[in-house]
Design brief:
elongated; alpha+beta
């Protein structure tokens, strides 16, 4: 359910925290911040895909706001030697699992109408794999890590 990433950047910890705070604010994430940590309080929820602007983002090539798909983000900043800052990103991906379950459920309803059992099994398995890779691994993992790393120029 949780995924942890480690990033290293050349910025001082306080400046790195301000940049990440700006990113989270821009993406609609409510958070609390201390000197060397940021914890999300609420991430945006998009129910009506086509009319809610908080689902979309211009911070990545995909055009989706990855923070809509996760339950929370915690960041810790540790200053190291030589002016390097270590950023620990912990992503709570419980909401991504709910998305995957909803896709599998919908494919199960479609599979009931299929005449062949193996075709129905293949449909459900294919949707499950695509949802896991697309939502959990890409949107709930890689894309969040990339947006944070991009915000910390010099990483």
């Amino acid at each position: 359910m949780y995924k942890t990433y480690e990033l290293v950047c050349n910025l001082p910890a306080r400046i790195a925290a301000k940049r990440i705070g700006g990113l989270l604010s821009k993406e609609g994430v409510d958070y609390t911040a201390t000197d060397l940590s940021i914890s999300s309080v609420r991430t945006p929820i998009a129910v009506f895909w086509w009319i809610q602007p908080k689902l979309y983002s211009r911070n990545n090539r995909v055009g989706l706001n990855p923070f809509v798909f996760v339950s929370g983000v915690d960041l810790r900043f540790m200053e190291g030697e030589n002016g390097l800052t270590r950023v620990t990103v912990r992503v709570n991906r419980f909401r991504t699992l709910l998305w995957v379950v909803s896709y599998i459920t919908c494919s199960g309803f479609a599979a009931v109408a299929m005449p062949e059992l193996w075709g129905a099994i293949a449909l459900i398995a294919g949707v499950a794999c695509a949802a896991w890779l697309g939502i959990v691994e890409f949107l709930g993992g890689y894309l969040i890590k990339k947006e944070i790393a991009d915000r910390l120029t010099g990483c």
